[in-house]
Amino acid sequence: MHSTFLAVGTPFLVIGVTFAVLGDTAIGTTFLTLGTVFLALGLALDGDGDEREGGDDGSEPPVEPDERV
Hints:
Structural class: mainly alpha
């Protein structure tokens, strides 16, 4: 889910910068704000993503069988 926030926030930032450079500050500011919010949410929710060992649904990782018999 957090990668979706990052994927949505990046185009909003690009569109906002484009409008701001072209002189339309009202719509540019709106898109920049939306992009910043989406990116902040994506980064905040992904803060502990690398430390998680289970799957996305919170389940435990699969257990490898012991080869000693």
